[in-house]
Amino acid sequence: VAVRCFLMCKLTWCFFSSLQLVSLLLIGIAAWGIGFGLISSLRVVGVAIAVGIFLFLIALVGLIGAVKHHQVLLFFYMIILLLVFIVQFSVSCACLALNKEQQSQLLEVGWNNTNSARADIERNLNCCGFRTFDPNETCLSDCFRSHQCRPCLLVIEEYSGMVLRFVGGIGLFFSFTEV
């Protein structure tokens, strides 16, 4: 009976590794975003794919350590997983703690620092400018021809709070399932 229980624990560890699911999901979403033209910034996609590959390799180390009963691999897996938990928990709490003013400031910093993301946002959300619409500036959105565009901050703010709560909640869920 003890051998069966240990075998089931080992199989459960192998098949339900949430870290592997998160890493593959991260890689898949990044590839999907660039494949459909939603994200043109290769830096953002590259970071998402690199983090996904890192998490997958960490999960693979844990899987090999569990299957081979290798205590050193499992020790380092748990140390790295603890560090991943701390980072993921901190980022998730930060996502849940941001208020509207802080969100607006972060959005403006991102808006001013990346031209490719600005063009993607204007094109995908059909808006022009950040706080105000200026018909003298260039804009890739369809509404620019009619000069009846909304500022992008108003459009982004509709979704940013909801997205931050969703990402924070999912991050907390996965951070606790990893431990």
Automatic annotation (TrEMBL):
<keyword id="KW-1133">Transmembrane helix</keyword>
<feature type="transmembrane region" description="Helical">
    <location>
        <begin position="74"/>
        <end position="99"/>
    </location>
</feature>
<keyword id="KW-0472">Membrane</keyword>
<feature type="transmembrane region" description="Helical">
    <location>
        <begin position="12"/>
        <end position="39"/>
    </location>
</feature>
<protein>
    <submittedName>
        <fullName>TSN13 protein</fullName>
    </submittedName>
</protein>
<feature type="transmembrane region" description="Helical">
    <location>
        <begin position="45"/>
        <end position="67"/>
    </location>
</feature>
<dbReference type="InterPro" id="IPR018499">
    <property type="entry name" value="Tetraspanin/Peripherin"/>
</dbReference>
<dbReference type="GO" id="GO:0016020">
    <property type="term" value="C:membrane"/>
</dbReference>
<dbReference type="Pfam" id="PF00335">
    <property type="entry name" value="Tetraspanin"/>
</dbReference>
<keyword id="KW-0812">Transmembrane</keyword>
